[in-house]
Design goal:
The complex is a heterodimer.
Chain A: H1 3-28, H2 36-65, H3 70-113, H4 117-140, H5 143-171, H6 177-181, H7 199-219
Chain B: E1 2-6, H1 10-22, E2 27-31, H2 34-39, E3 46-49, H3 58-66, E4 76-80, H4 85-94, E5 98-101, H5 106-122
Parallel strand pairs in B: 1-2, 1-3, 3-4, 4-5
Amino acid sequence: MPTSRIAEVLYDSETVLRLVDSELEELRDDPADGHPLAVLLAVMQRANAEIACVLRVLHDGRDALGEVPLRELRDAADKLTEVSTATETAAHRIMDGLDRAQGMLDTLDRLADEPTVDGAIEEATLRARLRDELFQIVGALQFQDITSQQLGHAAKILGDVGRRVHATTSLLGGSCTEAEGVVAEGTPVFAESASIRDVGERQAAADALFWAERGRKTAC
Amino acid sequence: MRFLVVDDSATMRRIVVNSLQRVGFTEVVEAADGAEALEKLSGIDFLITDWNMPKVSGAELTRAVRARDDCRSLPIIMVTARSVRDDILTAMEAGVDSYVVKPFTPQVLREKIDAVLASRAAA
């Protein structure tokens, strides 16, 4: 049920209950002992109290749940999708680098079997390229740091939602054991903007801002 | 030149150390967070720090370094996944000399180190 509809139902129910309460008060002013109306009055008063109690619990439950952070849940979903993409991209970069390195090693083996002057030059070039290639592979492993921060962000959002569900479940008298299990312990350390996307553009923007601010401060 | 590399991710520390060694800086000390870094500042010529770390963050570490008489002018580069405008301004106000966005290439890190050293030499 949409949040606005829930609020409407709660408001209407409370209004009706207030009217019923008022009617009951009027009946109470003129009780007739043993009269069937007096019995009916007692039953209705009990029913009224119980309905009011249920409404109060619903009210508290809605407050505990709060506005479900749909935007944040979408952010969490986006982060998880990016983690998947980043992992795959890094794996491909590493595999491609290893394939190229393997090809260079094969060529180095061939050159070692047939030593020539030109071969020695090519060998030196290949060794330098092989070092570069291995170095690029090490650099590709930065995805681990980025994805761990993205997972930390998603875990925080899910932890918040878990706590709200936990609070609501408690109010409604449900078992809290399983709800407690979804609440992450500790605060993960992460950057919300962590991403492997557009890093060149983000570095350029950071440089531009950095130098602009530095220039502004120097001018002052 | 002796570097101090601060990052709570052991993988990132290895990558930064590897990048430094690749461009000829072989003397590198490591710290897993800002608190540990503050204990290892003695004899350090250049600080490279992450931002998001437990206990003491990179920004807090930078402020603490700038507040110390013995290393007030220590070159500092922030290497971080944070790249929004306010973060960069906060890092600048804390006192970093340069800013590198993760994931970085060794070339970018080298350029920033060279620029900071050249700026210090010219000052």
